[in-house]
Amino acid sequence: MNVQAIPEPPDVPAFHLDDVHALQADLWQHAQRALGPVTHGYAIAPAYFAIDDAASAVRIGNNITISLDVHAARDWPSCVSILGHELVHALDGLTGHASWLEEGVGCLFGIGQCVAMFGHAPMDLCSGAYRSAAKLVASIPNQFDVVKALRAQDIRMCGVTPAQLLAAAPGIDVRTAQILCARFEPKVVGVSRVRDCGE
Ligand SMILES: [Zn+2]
After folding, report:
1. How far does the centroid of ligand 1 lie from the alpha carbon of residue 88, in Å?
2. Exposed end of the chain (fewer CB within 10 Å): N or C?
3. Cα–Cα dist 105/90, whole Å
4. Which one has a higher pLDDT value, 188 or 185?
5. What's the gap in Å between 6 CA and the centre of ligand 1?
6. Residue 37: inside a domain, yes or no?
7. How remote is the CA of residue 34 from the centroid of ligand 1, in Å?
């Protein structure tokens, strides 16, 4: 009898959800080590794949859900980068509209974790306004320590004011601080056009 072997599922995240969830637990610990401990009590559900949508972290009531996109489904470096990014949003509890600072930190953290694990990162995942945000955050000396210090004062990335950011990161200029604290707009690429956020 000619029994055909059943092929193993391909080694891509979409077919290995248990590994994705183990990765989520690791990245969650790394995020808190880099950016300070979580201070909210919201539950974070195991991530799932929503192939037709962009990746996102959404809070409804006390529950945060992270959905991963087709890029994350297809290869492990992208999965680490995207999951790391969304966990940065989850870290602050999604209590307000993301700032340029929050999106930039998300990009840098995700890419950093990806490089640490694989030695390279799919840079095309961080494009347009996200790339601008990442560059701005990368221009802050010791940017993760700055965010960690702010969060230790209960100042979230979505709610930080330019004055608070300048106090925590004296090396940056006022205009950069204003842009980083403004509401992130994914369609704005030239960040010099970002409106000031008031304070
Ligand atoms: Zn984001």
Report:
1. 8
2. N
3. 12
4. 185
5. 39
6. yes
7. 17
Question: Given the structure tokens 């840079």, which residue do they identify?
Answer: 123
Q: How far is CA 197 from the centre of its chain?
A: 22
Distance (Å) from CA 56 to ligand 1 centroid: 7
* Distance in angstroms (rounded) separating the CA atoms of residues 140 and 104: 11
Angle at 142 between CA 141 and CA 145, to 5 degrees: 140
- For the full predicted model, state whether its pTM sits above 0.85: yes
Distances (CA, A) of 167 to 148, 158, 172, 191, 198: 13, 17, 10, 22, 17
Amino acid at 34: A
Q: Determine the distance separating the centroid of ligand 1 and the alpha carbon of 66, expressed in angstroms.
A: 11
User: From CA 24, how far away is CA 65, in angstroms rounded?
Assistant: 12
List the structure tokens of 126.
């961080």
pLDDT digits (tens, 9 = 90+) for 7-28: 787 899 999 999 999 999 999 9
In a domain, 3, yes or no: no
Overall domain count for the chain: 1
Residue 2 domain-assigned?
A: no
Which residues span the domain enclosing 44? Answer: 13-193
What is residue 67's three-state secondary structure?
A: strand
Determine how many CB atoms are found less than 10 A away from the CB of residue 118: 14
